[in-house]
Each structure stands twice: as C-alpha cells, then as structure tokens.
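Summary for the steering committee. One of the milestones for this cycle was to obtain a three-dimensional model of the protein with 2-(butylsulfanyl)adenosine bound, which we needed before selecting residues for the alanine scan. The sequence and ligand used are listed below.
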Amino acid sequence: MFSLFDPPSDAADRVLELRRQILHHDRLYYVEAQPEISDREYDLLLDELIRLEREHPDLVTPDSPSMRVGGAPIGSFETVTHAVPMLSLANTYSREEVEDFDRRVRQGLEGAVPRYVCELKYDGVAMSLTYENGLLVQAATRGDGQTGDNVTANVKTIRAVPLGLDHPTIRSATIRGEVFMLTETFLEINRLAESKGEKTFANPRNLTAGTLKQKDPKAVAKRRLEFVAYWMETQDVALEAHSSNLRLLHGMGLPTSPATAICETVDEILAFLAEWDERRFDLPFQIDGVVIKVDSLRQQSELGSVARSPRWAIAYKYEAKKAQTILEDITLQVGRTGVVTPVAELRPTLLAGSTISRATLHNEDYVHELDLRIGDTVVIEKGGDVIPKVSAAITELRPADAQMWHMPPTCPCPRHSHIHRPEGNAQWFCNDAQCPWQLRRTLEHFASRDAMDIDGLGEKAIEQFIDAGLLTSIADIYRLDQRTQDILALDRWAPKSLQKLLDGINASKQQPFERVLFALGIRFVGEGVAKILARNFRSIDALLSATQEQLTAVNEIGDAIAESVIAYMTEHDNRELIASLRSAGLQMESHENVVTSSEFAGKTFVFTGELTRMTRREAEESVEQRGGKASGSVSKKTSYVVAGQAAGSKLEKARSLGVAVISEDEFLAMITNPSSS
Ligand code: IVH
C-alpha cells in the first residue's frame, strides 16, 4: 500500500490521474447534480492523492483538490477592496412593484425591448471569487459592498468552488455567487450542537455566516458549505448576456442555479414567481425570493445603477407564509424530561398546504412577550421547512373578553403535581417521577421508529395501556404478553392486532445496542451520541460504571453529556429498568465491529493532530478491532500517542510524561505488520 518506492514518474502520473478523477466527480456532483460514486469512494481517491502529495511534495499544485482539507488557522481576516463594487438589490413584494420595475427598465432603454432572466434568490452569504491565471486567488465577503473580508482559506475548503477554472481562454475572472448550506446539513449540525448542549443557529444563513467567520479552515471544511455562481466578469472573452454567462460558468465548472427562466413579459415573470412560491418548500436549500435581471449586458450598462443597487435587476422577496386564526386556548404539554411547555390551541387553518391547529409557544416568557390573550386573532407563520409558529397577536382585533394567561402552578396530568421554574431558566419542570404524561412521552419515544421501532405500539395504544394500568414503565412493554386478556378487553383490540403488537415487541429485542441506548431517553443522548457511546463503551455494563473522565476521554463527549449519562446510570430506578430489559432479552452489548484479534490488548492509543491517510474514526476502529483502546486524553497509562500533522498539546503532554510517540506511518506499519507492535 505504500508507494514510497515507486519511481517518481509513476507517482506523477497517478497524481494527475487522481486529480482528473476527483475533478470529474466534483463536477458530476456539484455542477451536474449527477454523482456516480459514493462519498466513501470519493474519499478514497482524495486520501490517496493526499498521501502521494505528502510523499512527493514537489508534485503539489495550488489547484490540487488536496488543498480543500483546510490550512493553518487564520489570525484575523484581512480587508480587501472589491475591484467592482458588490451591489445589493432593491426589494419588491408585489405584482405592482414588478410592473413598475419593468416600466422603469423600458423607459431607461428608450424603447428597446428587454428580455429578463429570473432565477432563485439563494438565502446565504454573497461571495466574490477572483481567479488569476486560471487559479482561485481570492475569496471575499461582500462587507459594505466596497470592501469585504478575505476569507480565501475558508472558501477553498468548499468543494463546490473550483480551485482552478476549466476553460481554454478564460484565465482571469471575477465570479460572484452565494455560499449556502443545505437545510438537511443545517438541521444535522444543530441537532448535534443541541445534544451537546452547545449554541444552536436560527437558520442555515446564520450558520453559513458563522462558519465563514471561523478562524480554523479545518472546522469550515467539516461544515459542508455549498456554492452557486450567478455573476461573472472577465476581459478574456467577449460577454454578451447574463444567460450566456450562466452557461459559460456552468461550462467552466461552477455550479449554477438549476431553476432559471427567460421571460419576455411581466406575466411570464409572475408565473415564475408563483411557481417557485409553491415549490420553494421542496428545495433542499432555502431561498428567500427570486432575482429578476435584464439579460443583455449592453442594456445592463445602459441602465446603470442608483446608489448601491443596479437599475437592471430587482429581488422579489417571498414573505414567510402567514395566516391569521383565533387562539382558542393555551394548554400545557409535558415532555419526557418533565419540561412543561405552553401550546397554542388554534382554530384550524390552512398554512402553506397543511392544516394547523396547534403550535408550540416555547415557554412562559414567549407568551407574555407577544402579549397573547385567549380569544385573540393571531398571526401564524412558517418559513422554509420550519415548524409553524405564532408570531404576533393582532391587538386591534382583540375582543373585550379576551383572557390573560398565566402559567398554572401544576402539571396538566391527572396527578396535578406542582411544577417549578428554576432560577435563570426559561422552562418550567414537573419533577414527579410518576407523571403519566411524562411516561407517555417516554414510551412514545422508546417505541418510535428511530428508537426501538415497535410496530403496533403507537400513540393511541400507549395512551390506552397507560389509562388501563397496563404500562407503568418501559419495562412493562416486555410484560404485555402476560396481559393479553386485558388488552383484548380494550376498545379496538382483536387477536390479529394483538399478535401484530406482540410480534413487534419481540422483534424489537433484536434492535442493536445503540438503539436501546437512544430509546432510554437519556438527556443529551440523541441518536448520534448513542452511537458514539455504543462504539466506545460497547456494553451497558461499561456505561453503568463509566466515570466522568472515561466518558469525556471520548472525543465527541463533553461534560454535559457525561454528567447526564452518569446521573442516569446511577439512579436506582434506571438500574432496575436496565436489569429488567436485559432479562427480557434486549441487546445490551454492541456487536458492531467485533474485535478480530488481540494484538493491542491492554494497549491504549491516543490520536492527535491531523491524520492524512485515514480518518480518526477509522484509526480508532482499527485499534479497537485489535483489542486495544482508543482514548482522547494522554495519561501515564497511554501506550502510544500517534501524532498526525500539526499535533499540539497532547503531543507535548506525551513527551512530558515519557509516553511513546509514533507517526501515522509507524502506526500504519504496526497495523499492517503486527510483529512491530
Ligand atoms: S445578483 C448586482 N443573483 O441577494 C446583482 N444575487 O441584495 C448582485 N443573491 O447580495 C446580486 N441569490 O447575496 C443575485 N441569483 C442571485 C442571488 C443573489 C442570492 C443575494 C446576494 C446579493 C443579495 C441581493
């Protein structure tokens, strides 16, 4: 697997071939949206390229895809001046304003007939890319339009931004577009942050902006930012129209919007606006409107610009989808951790294609900040993929008998236990361990699709079984087979549905350990964290006795998660539950990645710095497969510290403790040639 001894010409050929293939796949993925290989296969190509370039530094070029892993941290962003100012667009919101725009354009062109290009207005961060001699030399934010921040190191990590232009004559160009993030990526990053108790972001645009301001390009590389180009300027070829520029950009290897239309009339423009107002919720990214541009570049320059906006283009902004309805009541909802949240009970109304009758009000303060009263006419809205929210009360329409609302002092469940709001906390909590509503949520979560996926145990069945006293804890689920007569006595239950339920319960016993961990509903232990815990601790027994230090030694586990896991595992009732689930036959050990040898038994490895031939995860797995332990912190007990590139404090600590330090190559040699360990 090492090509150290390959003749350099072979390496040079292979490097060229790898770059060709990577570029080809980048293009298929980002420009054509038709990938042909899996991410894993792509990563293998990139890994091989990085390895060869490390062995043959003379073969490195500035446009090599290996440059995308991110360079050294940046101290501060330098300010750069835009050669052509970055303009912004005037906003419009109505048919009339679009008609006004068309009229102004026609007047400005003194009778000449314009043609328009309509395209999506991506909701991200504007970026100006400068290419010289075919290479990306600068990426700058818009800033105030005249000067912006030089964020080149960060933007180079974005795979959709070509490091070199693919064109025979265009060598220098300014290309502008939007850096954005897919909604799914945003949700995933936020979910992870939330499960770690870290700051979450309001929307993909804020997260994109925050990411571009990061000082560490390696962190940016992990955030999977995207790019779409919508403007260019070059002296190297004659440019005629915006529409042909878009084709040119596409041909040069830049992603362009898949949705553009040439429109000759206002009606055609309005049809495009209406179409995307509906379809925007199906897009995998967020848009906040449509941009309408005069196509001809000659006409664009005739029209010129006023203040900071061009006269040849406008933005048509979509409003967040809004509707008005009556707030009929405010009720309370109890989460499985005991958080008690107010919920708006609304007169059912249609909003962006679905009927809304309830919406969360988040917390007590939210209700008072909006000054909501029961009986009020309220505005509900939905933006992008977001869950509907109550955004305002229309006080002019407030009826005389509208009722003020106060947080009730008790839990809404039949036990009416007292609830409390800790100092400095926005939420109220119900601490009653017997609260049937918490139990309902706990069981719903346990049986849900992503957790134990128990067929036949849906919300309705859970409610019925709790009311009938058949379910008082998770453990009771696995005793339902002894309560068949009681179940059959309930409404809607027949031998067939009962059998389906029992089969579902039985099948859930085969769900892997990581799912069991997630299903337990431990605070901060979402699906991702459950996987990490299962992979690192491998059994419930290991977790039952895990210490804070052992937990936080795992890279992704911070103090909050560790504390929560320990609090859960030390609680008497939870230990009993685990024992009961174990005897019911649930999976309490991880079978994934079984140890294949014991070469590394008793040895602990710590990986630090950047590994170039494998990911840290792969390296850690290869240790675990050999019976060793991978840890996140160095101590006297550490057997080896594997130092990748730019290793820092852990390396120093290893040296000060006299722990053996080896290189990534030495580690690779160890796992390919066991005798050397
Ligand atoms: S054209 C002079 N096209 O919207 C024209 N802008 O205020 C420059 N945007 O700063 C912009 N999608 O960040 C253009 N297809 C698109 C766009 C777009 C998003 C952003 C861009 C710009 C802002 C306009």
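Key point for the committee: Residues 116 and 189 are 38 Å apart (CA to CA).
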